[in-house]
């Protein structure tokens, strides 16, 4: 196969892995925004907390990397639950206040981690089987990026099952569509919001644990993912299927443009395309089937 075509094929695979990273980062935000309409500005810091949770578990307790993933989900999910009960629960009817409050939470979390752990980068180790490359014909694939793509598929599948195939998911969809009507059937919307916020926070923590193996762990690392997370959610329309489609498209566009130009210019072009798309379709790829009340 011609070298140029091999490089282009590798860039397409890289685009899927980039889209998987953005999707994993955006999954928790999709759930929180899609259910409660909360724009969680602390989402990037929840990702950062997941990375530091994995670091602490591995550095101080010797927990294997794969076991750090579910434990980080639980730890950050509990932190999110506390923040929701203490602060966010009082602001659901005030979107601007929620935006400012969660931004304040993000600053507190970032500075708190900096005080506790300092600003020096931290590192965690991966299993050996995730540190190698796999050769599929002429294509060279990173084992960890394949792991991320498989993980994204599993997380989306689990989230879809929870929302569309469980009793709890029925309550989530009922509250999302009409919380007053849901309350008339005995559904406690406040409790649903609490569990949903905790679930979204836990997914952000799981994403952070995964990204801790991909990059260095820093108090400011969440800022590197939060912009793309919001773009995935907004471009997808706030729906799970929309976020999947948006992440895949954005990842491929970013990778293909980077193949022909460079990564910085590719990101610039990607943002321009998103702005143009939202100008003509502000509801996103998948418009919500019902209006949140």
UniProtKB/TrEMBL annotation:
Pfam families with a match to the protein in the record: BPD_transp_2
Superkingdom, taxonomy of origin: Bacteria
Presence of keyword Repressor: no
Regions crossing the membrane: 12-34, 99-117, 144-163, 192-218, 230-249, 256-278
Primary location group: membrane
Family statement drawn from the similarity comment of this UniProt entry: Belongs to the binding-protein-dependent transport system permease family. LivHM subfamily.
Keyword terms: Amino-acid transport, Cell membrane, Membrane, Transmembrane, Transmembrane helix, Transport
Species assigned in the record: Stutzerimonas tarimensis
Entry membrane topology: Multi-pass membrane protein
CDD domains: TM_PBP1_LivH_like
Location of the protein in the cell: Cell inner membrane
Source taxonomy: Bacteria, Pseudomonadati, Pseudomonadota, Gammaproteobacteria, Pseudomonadales
Name by which UniProt lists this protein: Urea ABC transporter permease subunit UrtB
InterPro entries registered for this protein in UniProt: ABC_transp_permease, ABC_UrtB_bac, BCAA_transport_permease
């Amino acid at each position: 196969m011609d070298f140029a075509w091999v490089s282009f094929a590798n860039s397409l695979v890289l685009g899927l892995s980039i889209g998987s990273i953005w999707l994993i980062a955006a999954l928790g935000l999709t759930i929180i925004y899609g259910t409660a309409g909360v724009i969680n500005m602390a989402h990037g810091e929840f990702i950062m907390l997941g990375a530091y949770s994995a670091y602490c578990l591995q550095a101080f307790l010797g927990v294997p990397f794969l076991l750090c993933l579910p434990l980080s989900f639980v730890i950050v999910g509990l932190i999110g639950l506390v923040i929701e009960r203490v602060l966010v629960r009082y602001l659901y009817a005030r979107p601007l206040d929620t935006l400012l409050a969660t931004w304040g939470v993000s600053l507190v979390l970032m500075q708190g981690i900096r005080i506790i752990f300092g600003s020096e980068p931290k590192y965690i180790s991966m299993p050996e089987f995730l540190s190698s490359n796999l050769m599929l014909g002429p294509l060279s694939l990173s084992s960890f990026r394949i792991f991320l793509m498989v993980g994204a598929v599993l997380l989306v599948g689990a989230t879809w099952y929870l929302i569309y195939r469980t009793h709890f998911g029925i309550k989530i969809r009922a509250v999302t569509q009409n919380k007053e009507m849901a309350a008339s059937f005995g559904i406690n919307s406040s409790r649903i919001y609490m569990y949903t916020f905790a679930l979204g926070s836990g997914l952000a923590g799981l994403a952070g644990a995964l990204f801790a193996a991909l990059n260095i762990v820093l108090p400011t690392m969440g800022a590197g993912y939060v912009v793309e997370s919001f773009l995935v959610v907004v471009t997808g329309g706030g729906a799970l299927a929309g976020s999947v489609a948006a992440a895949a498209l954005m990842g491929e566009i970013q990778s293909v443009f980077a193949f022909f130009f460079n990564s910085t210019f590719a990101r610039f072009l990607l943002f321009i395309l998103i702005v143009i798309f939202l100008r003509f379709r502000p509801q996103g790829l998948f418009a919500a089937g019902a209006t949140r009340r």
